[in-house]
Write a structure and sequence with these properties.
alpha+beta; Dna Ligase, domain 1; 8-stranded mixed beta sheet; 26 helices; 21 strands; 42% helix; globular
């Protein structure tokens, strides 16, 4: 059966109307079409199953993808610095399709290459026979910063150096794949590939199913299982952590995403400690043994004692613990040397020696300039070559020699002559082109493919059936993260429906289910402050809303009322103390300008925008513990508090309404979906402590500044505490001081009351592991048991504001003392730099 011509496709496909801008010029390989008039079979299958690929449908689908990625907070470099630019992850609506038979050949060749690299690492850090035999020049190894001498002579746990490896691939003009780069330290991108799959499979569910696109999830199960099997556990359930540089790393999104998908604990270097050649996680219950580390930290930052001394990201003593067999590190320290571009020139000879067979997937043709014969050969063909540096700290973008004028070319050659061992020449590959949807039209853009492999624990490697496809930016021909561009979901087609992953075949028991969710000291602190900042934000939004909603009727309220409002707002930092809210006749412009700063200015330390910003910041640090819904709500709140041109009273009140609803929804998700572990307990402690502090502070300031017989002030306090409906249903009368006090301070059934918060705090503190907070617990229990005028014979006690003020002040001091006690007991985990003593 003949393949369909592009100009003869049925109208249902819609492609003939979309391909007018799709042009691939020689010598670039065309992924879509075998000829100017013929689709390749696997793209024919996609076009047939995808149905009507009209311009409107694809444009709308692209917009949905962008919106989804934005709401999920999928980013690449937003965390690079506190005020760095936001670069959302971008994804093309059209997947990159690979035929199943082609993939089988490619995957087999990449498995061979992974086995080869693992054996090279074992030799370089062992007998170094390859260097002795001249198969690898000594300068490529010993002059490379990725070769770590402290790792020489080590046999890693399980004997595997590479548990996870990635290869960057490009297709040459002849259609054959070439390996152009290797990632062995901490290969990145699998999390983005999985997120791409989730997004695209929702757009083409029927097509995805009919084409039998191979699933990605079995690969992640195998990675998890392989690490568990190889970890030196001594019979214990293996505890694996994912080591991250922290929230300011450009791929932190992926670190948190993978930790959540794999069920690993997300840890920073300061979360870990080495004792007696064993690695431990600092948790709220004490030190917890770590058996394996999936690291996303470059080699030299892993250990400030034996590697880079100025690193504050690593773990002092980590290399020694690994060297002693106390912990598995994936990938093993020192594997960065395998990323050297110069090694590609020597892999064919090494493969013949170690494997007895040639490389099934060749590397891009490479000439190491440290060999005079190779350099002379490269000089004879400069116009077709690309110049690269071999040292990672010097590497910039490759230089295509044909793009240079004579003077620039001579200048580069002088650098090569001065340090030839630091350069390689590579064959220039005109990258293949694939269809990409951009600006409501189908264009051809250059593509590169990163493929991932994981060790299975039996000496073999599994290949992720797909990978991360990257496409060129506006210039259409250069794939580079520095030049923008986008990504694609990668579809590997199968002959039969893909099997869903089953149970782990290893028989290795992972974490004990009862104690699976360990909570590091750092995570507990961030969760505690997430609760505090979220509650503080909600209280601030309610206070501003309760105040501004009374502005239209400002003249109906007494000067004493506005004085109490002013003292309450300024005492809690929502307005600056020097701002004078006028007593008597209310000036609308004055109040609105003050409120505008409190709502929108992140520079106002205690303002709403600042508190929401802090809420999002601490949430980001524990993103692996938050659901996608929770994160979307928090991110949306952070973006909503931005200045707009229209900021009148109605717009500000509408914004405050949305903010309150959003924060209540966040709290609801925490209550409904978070597992009741120690992490949730610290989050709840933060919320109840902050709410108790807000109630005590607000009522205390109102006692000091207001007329406590003023029904309008009491109504304002009820509004602020979200208790108006409760009060009206229960008392059915104009607010009076005694009943309002009973409801807001002493009613244990009111979730907004002070007594309710104190009782919750006492309950949580009593359940904390080895708290040592008996004094604070006893004080909480005493305060929570105090009853008001309606429920005690001491009716006189709380009818007088001076006495109530003392009680509120006592409760406020108690919450602050509890906060100090929690911090000292659980959150004291300062990073301690390594110390060295010289004996003279």
């Amino acid at each position: 059966m003949s393949e369909p011509r592009l100009d003869a496709l049925p109208a249902a496909h819609g492609l003939e109307a979309l391909l007018s801008d799709y042009i691939v010029t020689a010598p670039h390989f065309d992924e879509l079409a075998a000829s100017p008039t013929t689709l390749r079979p696997h793209w024919q299958a996609f076009a047939r199953e995808a149905g009507a690929l009209g311009r409107r449908q694809l444009t709308e689908a692209q917009a949905r993808i962008e919106r989804q990625l934005h709401e999920n907070g999928v980013t690449y470099n937003i965390y690079a610095s506190a005020d760095g630019p936001t670069r959302p992850w971008t994804l093309d609506v059209v997947p990159f399709v690979i035929a199943g038979d082609e993939w089988s050949v490619l995957a087999s060749g990449l498995r061979q290459r992974a086995r080869l690299l693992d054996r090279i690492a074992a030799d370089l850090y062992g007998p170094q026979r390859l260097v002795a035999a001249g198969l690898i020049p000594s300068a490529i190894v010993h002059a490379h910063p990725g070769f770590l001498r402290p790792c020489h002579g080590v046999v890693p746990p399980g004997g595997t150096w590479l548990h996870h490896v990635a290869f960057d691939l490009a297709r040459a003009s002849d259609g054959g794949w070439r390996v152009i780069g290797t990632r062995t330290q901490s290969p990145s991108g699998t999390g983005y590939a999985l997120e791409n799959r989730v997004a695209i499979s929702r757009l083409f569910p029927n097509t995805f199913r009919q084409l039998h696109v191979q699933r990605l999830s079995p690969f992640f199960q195998l990675l998890q299982d392989g690490l568990a099997r190889a970890a030196p556990t001594g019979g214990e359930p293996p505890h694996v952590v994912l080591l991250t540089p922290g929230p300011f790393n450009e791929t932190y999104f992926e670190h948190a995403y993978l930790a959540r998908q794999l069920g690993f604990t997300l840890a920073e270097g300061s979360d870990l400690a080495v004792r007696n050649d064993r690695v431990y996680l600092k948790t709220v219950t004490g030190l917890r043994r770590v058996h394996a580390i999936l690291r996303r930290l470059d080699d030299d930052f892993c250990d400030p004692v034996e590697l880079r001394a100025d690193s504050t990201l690593g773990v002092p003593g980590l290399v020694q613990a690994w060297r002693a067999g106390g912990v598995l590190i994936a990938n093993a320290p020192g594997t960065g040397v395998l990323e050297s571009p110069a090694l590609l020139a020597f892999l064919p000879g090494i493969a013949d020696r170690l494997l007895g067979t040639p490389l099934a997937v060749p590397s891009v043709a490479t000439w190491w300039c440290g060999e005079s014969a190779a350099l002379d050969d490269a000089r004879a063909r400069l116009g077709t070559l690309v110049l690269k540096r071999t040292l990672p700290h010097q590497a910039g973008e490759p230089v295509f020699m044909a793009d240079l004028d004579e003077a620039a070319r001579d200048a580069w050659l002088q650098q090569v002559d001065a340090a030839p061992e630091s350069f390689v020449f590579e064959e220039h590959l005109p990258l293949s082109h694939a269809p990409s949807w951009h600006d409501s039209r189908m264009e051809s853009r250059a593509v590169m493919l990163r493929v991932y492999l994981a060790a299975d624990g039996h000496g073999e490697y599994a290949v992720l059936p797909g990978g991360l496809t990257r496409i060129a930016g506006a210039d259409r021909y250069v794939v580079s993260s520095q030049r923008g561009g986008s990504s694609k979901d990668t579809w590997v087609l199968g002959e039969t429906p893909a099997e869903r992953p089953g149970p782990s075949p290893s028989g290795v028991r992972l974490e004990d289910p009862v104690h699976a969710r360990v909570v590091s000291s750092r995570a507990a602190e961030h969760l505690y402050w997430l609760g505090r900042y979220a509650e503080r934000s909600e209280h601030g939004a309610r206070l501003l809303r309760a105040t501004l909603s009374r502005v239209p009727d400002a003249g109906d309220f007494s000067p004493a009322f506005w004085r109490a409002v002013r003292e309450t707002a300024s005492g809690q930092g929502l307005i600056r103390e020097e701002e004078e809210l006028p007593a008597g006749r209310m000036r609308l412009s004055t109040l609105l300008s003050v409120a505008e700063a409190a709502v929108y200015d992140t520079g106002e330390a205690h303002g709403l925008a600042s508190n929401v910003q802090q809420t999002v910041r601490v949430a980001r640090a524990v993103r692996d513990r938050l659901s996608s819904d929770n994160w979307r709500l928090l991110q949306g709140l952070g973006e909503s508090l931005r200045r707009t041109d229209e900021q009148g009273l109605a717009e500000t009140l509408e914004l405050l309404d949305r903010t309150v609803v959003g924060l209540v929804a966040v709290a609801g998700l925490e209550m409904a979906h978070m597992t009741r572990d120690d992490g949730w307990r610290f989050l709840s402690l933060g919320r109840h402590l902050e709410r108790a502090l807000a109630v005590a502070t607000t009522l205390g300031e109102a006692c000091a500044a207001g007329d406590l017989g003023d029904p309008q002030l009491l109504e304002w306090l009820l509004d602020l505490s979200d208790s108006v409906i409760t009060y009206r249903a229960r008392y059915r009368r104009v607010p009076d001081w005694t009943s309002v006090t009973e409801l807001l301070v002493f009613d244990e059934t009111n979730p907004r009351s002070l007594s309710f918060q104190l009782a919750k705090l006492a309950k949580h503190v009593a359940l904390l592991p080895d708290a040592g907070l008996s004094r604070q617990l006893a004080a909480l229990q005493r305060a929570a048991s105090v009853r008001g005028a309606a429920e005690t014979e001491q009716g006189e006690l709380f009818e007088h504001e001076a006495t109530l003020e003392a009680f509120l002040r006592e409760c406020r001091d108690l919450t602050l003392q509890l906060s100090d006690g929690l911090t000292q007991r659980y959150f004291s985990h300062a990073y301690e730099p390594a110390q060295a003593t010289a004996v003279l």
